[in-house]
Each structure stands twice: as C-alpha cells, then as structure tokens.
Amino acid sequence: MVIGANSAALKRRLKVAEIVRREGEMRVDDLSALLNVSAVTIRSDLSYLEDQGLIVRRFGKAMALEALAPRSGGPSEPSDHRFTADMLRAARELVSPDAPILIGHGVLPVRLIPLFSEIAGLSLILSSWDAVVVARSCLDCDINVLGGRLGADGSSLQGPKAIQSLSADLIGTFVFEARAVTAEGGLLMLDPATEQFCAAACRQAARTIALVPSAALLLARAGFQLPLDLVDHVILPSSPDMGCREQLIRAGYQPGGMTASVFGREHAITRGNAHVSAS
Questions:
Q1: Which of 249, 184, 197, 176 is closest to 223 using CA atoms?
Q2: Domain 8-66 has CATH 1.10.10.10
Q3: Would you call 97 exposed, middle or buried from its count of C-beta atoms within 10 A (0-12, 13-18, 19+)?
Q4: Which residue, 36, 96, 103, 275, has most beta carbons within 10 Å?
Q5: Where does the record place the HTH deoR-type domain (predicted)?
Q6: Which of 179, 207, 172, 211 is nearest to 86 (CA)?
C-alpha cells in the first residue's frame, strides 16, 4: 500500500521515522514534545509505521530495526563525478513528468531527484528512505512512499508489501540502479529482493531506465540478474567496452547521441496502463 501523498499526517510520520532511524530509539513522550503533538497522535503514528515494517515498539519506545544500522555496502558510485553528472542529465531528459515517477533503489536514482526541482505538477513514488530525505529537502511536489520492509542497506523498501504497493498507481517512468551488464544478457542487481522489486516495477511502468555505473561487461557468472528485455534504456558512464556494447545491441538496443552512453530500444512498448514510445 502506498503510504500517501504530501499531507500533514504523512509529513509527520515521515519525520517520526527519520528521527527514530537517526536516534536508534525514542520515547513516545519525547516524540510528542519534539513534534508538538499529543502522545495519542504519536502512538497512532508509531502503530502505522510498525504495520509498514519501518519501526518496532518495545517498552514504550519506538526503536529502529536492526537493518537500520550504518550501511556496510550497496551499489557503488562511479569514481568520476563528471560521468555521473552526464548520466543523471541523460536520465532527466528521458523522464516524462506527465505521470508519476518511481525512484528505485540505489545511489544514482536518489541523486537524480534534485534535477526535478523545476518541474511543475511533479508526482514522485519513492522506494527508499534516502530518497524521502532528499525529496523533502529540495522539492515541493506530490510525494508517495511505498510500504514494505527495510532492506539490508537500511534505506530501501522491499518485500511483498513494496511489490504490492506498485499496483496502487500508474507509474510513468521507473528509474533504478544496476551494477553491470552481464555476459548472460542481464543486469546485475544487488540482491534477490532488489531484483524481484525491480522486475515487478519494470512490468508495471510505462518506461524503464537503468543507471549502470560500470561500462565494462561482467564476464563472471552472476547471481541476481534482471533480464535486459524488461528495460527500455540503459545509461552508462562512458562508452562501453566491446563486449558490453555487443551484448546491448544483441538485446535490441541502439546507442544514443548523448555525452553519457545511452542505449535505448526504438520500438513502442505497452506496459502497466500506459503506452509510450521507448525511443
């Protein structure tokens, strides 16, 4: 279930979740004083957040889950920030603001959010708490947050609830991060939960964009892969090596003409409840 749009209750609940995540644990009375609302309201908020799998309540306290410990891993960022900026600008050009934009798991999709600041009437669907923090700091738009359990990275929302939430709204564009293009014809994902979420989101969205911080083909046998045929555009930080380029072309992609290396499919596609041209 989608938690909701930009309402006073949602903003307060997001703030409660952020505080608990930051502090590790908080008493009801302390949250009540901090947010200037009644203890009854805070208990209702905590009950809601616990139902969503975002906090736990013990002995009159709201406590962060063990998964909220400092992150020890996750998709790596490209070392050259100029290439990263090129990738984000290329993704921004491909995103259609006419329908809700789903920001998927990974560092790069979150860094894309500030580029939407000048879009009027924007609607975002967020699948991580890192994305929530960034969106609230730089955007004044309609924000929806997926339900679900927190992933091992302490930020991403995953599991059956998150996947079920995807069907609640039309998704125009889904932007996510993958680690590499594989020799087996897929995109390497961080873990099975991320792969399952991204597969479901790709099938629901009208347009899908993968940000891949490696331009080299992964030759080693990989575990958690998303099929390339679910993805409309693959954006790399630079020109791919020969193997990566051949794999993308074999999968039906054609190179674009932007600074970042953009590969897209030229045929029209129909997914979810929308019909778009993927070129």
A1: 184
A2: yes
A3: middle
A4: 103
A5: 9-64
A6: 211
CA distance 214 to 235: 10
Q: Distance (Å, rounded) from C-alpha 236 to C-alpha 230?
A: 17
Place of tokens 């993958």: 178
Cβ atoms 160, 52 nearer than 8 A: no
Q: Beta 254-255 vs 261-264: how paired, if at all?
A: antiparallel
What does the alpha-carbon distance between residue 32 and residue 194 come to, in Å, rounded to a whole number?
Answer: 35
Phi and psi of 249, rounded to 5°?
Answer: -65, -40
**Each residue of 104-123: pLDDT tens digit?**
998 899 989 989 988 888 89
Ordered by start, the domain boundaries in the chain are 8-66, 81-277
Supply the DSSP string of the chain, one letter for each residue.
----SS-HHHHHHHHHHHHHHHHSEEEHHHHHHHHTS-HHHHHHHHHHHHHTTSEEEETTEEEE-GGGSPP---PPPPS-HHHHHHHHHHHHHH--TTS-EEE-SSHHHHHHGGGGTT-TT-EEEE-BHHHHHHHHHH--SEEEE--SEE-TTSSBEEHHHHHHHGGGS-EEEEEEE-SEEBTTSEEE-SSHHHHHHHHHHHHHEEEEEEE-S--S-B-S--SSEEEGGG-SEEEESSPPPHHHHHHHHHTT-EE-SSSSEEEE--SEEEETTEEEE--
pLDDT in tens, 246-255: 999 999 999 8
The residue to which tokens 């139902």 are assigned: 51
Question: Chain-centre distance of CA 249, in angstroms?
Answer: 26
CATH topology of domain 81-277: Rossmann fold (3.40.50)
